[in-house]
Amino acid sequence: MYKGGSKLGCFPLVVNYDMPSNKQKYYKRVCCSSGQTGVAITFLEEHEMKKLKEVEETYGIKIEKMPVHSQK
């Protein structure tokens, strides 16, 4: 588990059930500094998209949108 502020290593999968309060926290949570790669999935509501775009612009990265399939 990631515990706020402490880095316990790199994880192959990070799942965010909400968008962290600021872009630095998001970047630290999903990026691994040891050069390893992994997958980060973040569940967002429409009003949080602006924060995600700020992360992309600040860090020069592109975050892919995954389709959500639901049965009604």
UniProtKB/TrEMBL annotation:
InterPro entries: P-loop_NTPase (IPR027417)
Gene3D superfamilies: P-loop containing nucleotide triphosphate hydrolases (3.40.50.300)
Protein name according to UniProt: Uncharacterized protein
Species this chain originates from: Ditylenchus dipsaci
